[in-house]
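User: Let's play a game. I give you a shape written as tokens, and you guess the letters that built it. Ready? Here's round one.
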């Protein structure tokens, strides 16, 4: 069943046919009715050659051909029907013709097209086949599960190279053919390199590289005069011809990638066909260069304070510190002040492995850069300092909105006006996303600070309880000490008591100090909690939607460009850039008010971050100090216990004894007068007492040894 007509040419027509049972669709390229009569022998041979070549090719990026299914017209022997896989997303020209692609395709699409087209072309060249008509119309798009697959079609002009690898016939579309082909000279497969270069420039910038407002007959002389470094030629507003060695910045491709492509383009669009696509040794390098472009890893860092994206090409050897040095060079923010967050709000720390950190992250999303420093400028002053990168043509029409323009320049001004607004809207989206990322990070940090604050309060309470027990114990020891000091056979040490009192005073001061700091941290934590709660409820943080007025202005600027290109230049009543200038001015006014609102909110969050960093640092120090105080309580308690044991040892050593009484180590505890023991029992009790006294004496001896080696600075014990 025929469903739709995909295209038509001078002699052929392409239609979509779908099997009613299997629902499989194919594209049939047939000769138009009656064309077989008007076709020359050369045309028929060309048609037959295309079918023959296509049926022999098998590559993922070359449209697949198959035998025509039963029930469909197979054609004739000299004009067979070409049955191809159906690529439902249309061709590349249709994508380029979309209004929003007037400044080139998105970077991911550019890389996919270069990858697929380059692989297809390399495959053909390896099979000694030139395409000779490489252009956007001959690249079709087929959706897959992961992405759009780009495939080469229409090998009607393809030619299999002979031994000489030279050809002479003129084929292809004029705007994309190589100079030697256009001028009727001999040519080789390098003509495909030229076409690939022009195709690449167009998908990156939205226009062909060489005077796209002129016909090939007019621009060919200028191209012949270009230097090797030149990759584009444009006509300026004053009519002069300008050569450039760089891609237009008004594109969707980042600068590091653009720089690599520029080097590749110089090789592809070299005027000299004998060296085009080769190195100094004559080796073809275009596909190797393309591979280097495709495997290059580039990360984007969005500086939220500056509302600007920076791009960095990284290798396996790139470290976090190297990346930080590059960021500092571009932003002026010192490495120790970097707060670099992934889209998941995970901070990139200096000791991390950069590549492990990036694994699993969406490469299309940037890292968000903030500063750990307190904001110093007023919001209004900061907003005035935010970089505004206005394209040259936009600056031109803002200065003079009444100047009449040629069709090419009028379209280009409208295109650049839309690009500028679209780029700024994208930056504002990134600002809002960055704000939410920072808030998510701070919520995690705040949770940790609250948890640590509670732990510090708990530890402080435990230490205070231990201190209270220490004081009670010391009070008890002092009471007992003072009681025995009143006895006749007393033992006293003034310096020992002073040491006890000093230890108590020292402990009390330290515990009071850390307790005050714990309370201060708890109070500051509550203040940060309140600030975080207010931020969560704010308009910017509670919604991820970009202000609808910005999107409306962006749509209006695109609509202006779309309407302009649909009207022929001769039919336009207004040949100025007045309309797009009015939209740009309206956007700039709205942008200023939105940035004022945004940076007010951001500065509050940065203040919270500074406070949280300060709290975390204070909590860490306080935790260490609490641990030291806890150890000090134990130390002073053990020291006092050692003092008590020393007193006890001295008391036993100098206790007066009856000459008839047994030695200290065999002294009994005494007997109750109401208890009478037998001789055996008495001996048994005396033996037990003697064993206990011996054990007690050993303990005292050990204590004395420890005291002597503990460097206690007492005065001599006074025995009275």
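Assistant: Ready! My guess for every position:
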């Amino acid at each position: 069943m025929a469903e739709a007509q995909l295209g038509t040419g001078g002699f052929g027509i392409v239609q979509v046919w779908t099997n009613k049972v299997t629902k499989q669709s194919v594209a049939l390229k047939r000769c138009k009715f009656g064309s077989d009569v008007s076709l020359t022998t050369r045309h028929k041979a060309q048609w037959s050659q295309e079918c023959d070549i296509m049926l022999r090719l098998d590559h993922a990026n070359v449209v697949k051909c198959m035998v025509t299914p039963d029930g469909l017209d197979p054609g004739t022997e000299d004009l067979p029907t070409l049955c191809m896989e159906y690529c439902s997303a249309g061709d590349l020209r249709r994508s380029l013709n979309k209004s929003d692609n007037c400044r080139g395709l998105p970077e991911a699409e550019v890389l996919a097209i270069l990858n697929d087209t380059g692989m297809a072309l390399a495959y053909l060249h390896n099979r000694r086949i030139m395409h000779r008509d490489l252009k956007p119309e001959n690249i079709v798009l087929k959706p897959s599960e992961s992405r759009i697959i780009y495939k080469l079609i229409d090998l009607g002009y393809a030619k299999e190279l002979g031994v000489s690898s030279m050809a002479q016939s003129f084929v292809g579309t004029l705007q994309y053919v190589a100079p030697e082909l256009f001028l009727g000279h001999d040519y080789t497969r390098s003509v495909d390199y030229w076409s690939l270069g022009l195709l690449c420039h167009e998908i990156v910038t939205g226009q062909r590289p060489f005077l796209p407002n002129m016909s090939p007959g007019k621009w060919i002389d200028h191209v012949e005069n270009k230097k090797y470094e030149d990759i584009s030629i444009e006509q300026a507003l004053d009519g002069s011809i300008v050569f450039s060695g760089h891609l237009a910045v008004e594109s969707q491709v980042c600068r590091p990638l653009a720089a690599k492509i520029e080097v590749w383009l110089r090789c592809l669009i070299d005027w000299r066909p004998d060296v085009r696509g080769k190195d100094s040794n004559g080796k073809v390098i275009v596909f190797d260069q393309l591979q280097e472009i495709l495997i290059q890893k580039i990360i984007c860092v969005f500086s939220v304070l500056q509302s600007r994206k920076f791009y960095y090409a990284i290798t396996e050897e790139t470290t976090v510190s190297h990346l930080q040095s590059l960021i500092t060079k571009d932003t002026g923010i010192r490495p120790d002040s970097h707060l670099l967050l992934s889209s998941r709000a995970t901070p990139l720390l200096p000791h991390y492995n950069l590549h492990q950190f990036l694994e699993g992250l969406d490469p299309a999303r940037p890292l968000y850069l903030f500063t750990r420093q307190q904001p110093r400028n007023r919001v209004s002053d900061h907003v005035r300092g935010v970089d505004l990168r206005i394209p040259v043509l936009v600056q031109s029409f803002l200065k003079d909105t009444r100047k009449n323009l040629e069709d090419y320049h009028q379209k280009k001004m409208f295109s650049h006006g839309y690009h500028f607004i679209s780029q700024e809207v994208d930056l504002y989206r990134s600002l809002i996303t960055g704000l939410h990322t920072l808030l998510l990070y701070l919520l995690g940090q705040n949770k940790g600070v609250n948890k640590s604050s509670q732990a510090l309060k708990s530890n402080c309470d435990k230490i205070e309880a231990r201190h209270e027990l220490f004081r009670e114990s010391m009070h008890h020891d002092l009471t007992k000490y003072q009681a025995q000091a009143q006895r006749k056979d007393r033992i006293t040490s003034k310096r020992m008591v002073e040491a006890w009192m000093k230890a108590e005073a020292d402990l009390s001061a330290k515990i009071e100090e850390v307790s005050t700091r714990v309370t201060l941290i708890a109070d500051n934590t509550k203040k940060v909690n309140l600030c975080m709660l207010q931020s969560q409820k704010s308009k910017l943080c509670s919604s991820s939607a970009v202000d609808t007025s910005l999107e409306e202005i962006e749509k209006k600027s695109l609509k202006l460009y779309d309407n302009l290109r649909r009207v022929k230049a001769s039919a336009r009543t207004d040949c100025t850039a007045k309309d797009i200038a009015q939209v740009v001015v309206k956007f700039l006014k709205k942008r200023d008010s939105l940035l004022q609102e945004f940076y007010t909110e951001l500065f509050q969050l940065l203040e919270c971050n500074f406070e949280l960093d300060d709290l975390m640092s204070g909590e860490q120090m306080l935790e260490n100090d609490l641990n030291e105080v806890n150890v000090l309580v134990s130390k002073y308690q053990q020291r006092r216990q050692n003092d008590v044991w020393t007193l006890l040892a001295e008391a036993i050593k100098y206790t007066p004894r009856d000459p008839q009484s047994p030695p200290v180590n065999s002294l009994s505890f005494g007997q109750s007068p109401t208890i009478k023991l037998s001789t055996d029992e008495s001996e048994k009790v005396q033996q037990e007492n003697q064993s206990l006294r011996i054990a007690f004496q050993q303990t005292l001896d050990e204590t004395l040894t420890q005291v002597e080696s503990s460097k206690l600075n007492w005065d001599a014990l006074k025995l009275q």
